[in-house]
Amino acid sequence: MAKRGEIVRLGKITEQLMDRWISPRQTRWAAVVQLWGRLLPAELGRHCEVVDVSGGQLKVLVDSPAYASELRLCCSELLEQLQRQCPRAKIKEIRFVLNKTEDRRHKN
């Protein structure tokens, strides 16, 4: 890290940020997203998307209440598989969030 008053190139700071914080987190994310896609049937997978992994919570955006209900029914099995196969992600819960924009499209 730079000392106070020391001039440091923005590229170097960005590189350090990527190496220390962003890349390791993205690596954990990528494994979770890939596994999520493999765990779900294709039809169900088309209606949801992993949008965040933080604080032990996997946040999944779902495009309709019906698919959100279906996902909630298999939540414990999904969580168990994610914890077993992606232990570094430290997922403790899955939160399904309804995408209000998608829900309005289905009603029209």
Task: Provide a concise account of the structure shown.
This protein has 108 residues and is of the alpha+beta class.
Keywords:
elongated, GMP Synthetase, Chain A, domain 3, single chain, 18% strand, alpha+beta, 108 residues
What does this structure look like?
This protein is of the alpha+beta class and 108 residues long. The chain has a single domain, classed as GMP Synthetase, Chain A, domain 3 (2-Layer Sandwich), CATH 3.30.300.180. The chain has 5 helices and 3 strands, in the order H-H-E-E-H-H-E-H. It has helices spanning 10-39, 42-45, 65-73, 75-85, 100-107, and strands at residues 48-54, 57-62, 93-98. A 3-stranded mixed beta sheet has the order 1-2-3. Helix 1 (10-39) crosses helix 4. The longest helix is centred in the N-terminal third of the chain and has 30 residues, at 10-39. It is elongated and about 55 Å long.
Question: What topology does this entry show?
Answer:
Blueprint: H1 10-39, H2 42-45, E1 48-54, E2 57-62, H3 65-73, H4 75-85, E3 93-98, H5 100-107
Output the CATH class name. Answer: Alpha Beta
Largest sheet, in brief, is: 3 strands, mixed
Share of residues in strands: 15-25%
Taking strands numbered 1, 2, ... along the chain, how are they ordered across the largest sheet?
1-2-3
- Supply the number of helical segments: 5
In total, the number of strands is 3
Gyration radius over CA: 18 Å
Overall pLDDT metric:
82
Under CATH, the homologous superfamily reads: DnaA, N-terminal domain
**Number of structural units classed as domains:** 1
Helix content: 55-70%
Shape category = elongated
In the CATH hierarchy, the third-tier topology is known as GMP Synthetase, Chain A, domain 3
**Low-confidence residue ranges:** 103-108
User: Would you tell me the structural class of the helices and strands?
Assistant: alpha+beta
Helix-strand string? HHEEHHEH
